[in-house]
Design a protein that fits this description.
Layout (H helix, E strand, L loop, with lengths): L1 H15 L6 H8 L3 H7 L3 H25 L4 H15 L7 H8 L1 H28 L9 H14 L13 H16 L2 H13 L2
Helix pairs in contact: 1-4, 4-5, 4-7, 5-7, 5-9, 6-7, 7-8
């Protein structure tokens, strides 16, 4: 039952937002009483923490699988982008913004975990790109990996990038191209242009 609660709550939170969804909504969607949910989660904050941990672990597994395919570094970034957009339902409800606003402790903890995982993933991607001649060998890998993470967090700020004006999919496309144009060799730019056409 706990897995069912997590699954349904994840779906509702990602679609409607962490603030909007109540325990009553979740109970109704599952066709159970609120008491059943409280048997597994002591309150909504506990449930939100369970859901964010679950999302984080599933996204990490998906990214690990993509990285194990040994694609070229540019295709790898676009594959990760496609997977996360699909899994996070295009982030239409700006879950990160709501999580930060209403559950700041959970958000801060999640952000730290995201940084550790993403830092490792991006450093490997950058080093692979340098090794195959797609990324310039003069880039500062540590700096680029950190600025990449900061930018990824930044484009999810709905005050800066309102969802009415920018879809998350469009923002990620723009950001990936912005990132790659700053680090690619001529060979990398050619591959990036081919990947962009293929992903349209």
């Amino acid at each position: 039952m706990k897995e069912k609660i997590l699954q349904k709550s994840t779906e509702l939170f990602l679609t409607l937002g962490f603030k909007s969804v109540t325990m009553d909504d979740i109970a109704q969607e599952l066709g159970v009483s609120k008491k059943t949910i409280y048997n597994h989660f002591k309150n909504k904050t506990d449930l939100v923490e369970g859901v964010t941990t679950n999302i984080f672990e599933n996204v990490c597994k998906g990214i690990d699988q993509i990285c194990s395919l040994d694609q070229n570094p540019i295709e790898e970034l676009y594959s990760i982008k496609r997977f996360t957009m699909q899994y996070l339902k295009n982030e239409k409800a700006s879950p990160q913004h709501q999580l930060n606003k209403y559950y700041p402790k959970i958000y801060a903890n999640l952000k730290n975990k995201q940084f550790e995982v993403m830092q490792d993933c991006v450093v490997k991607n950058l080093n692979k790109g340098i090794a195959v001649g797609m990324f310039r060998d003069t880039i500062d890998v540590d700096f680029i990996s950190r600025i990449y993470f900061h930018g990824m967090m930044g484009i999810k700020d709905i005050k800066l990038f309102p969802l009415q004006k920018f879809s998350m999919n469009t923002l990620l496309d723009h950001y990936l191209e912005y990132h790659l144009r700053g680090i690619c060799t001529d060979k990398g730019i050619k591959k990036m242009n081919q990947t962009i056409i293929k992903n349209k």
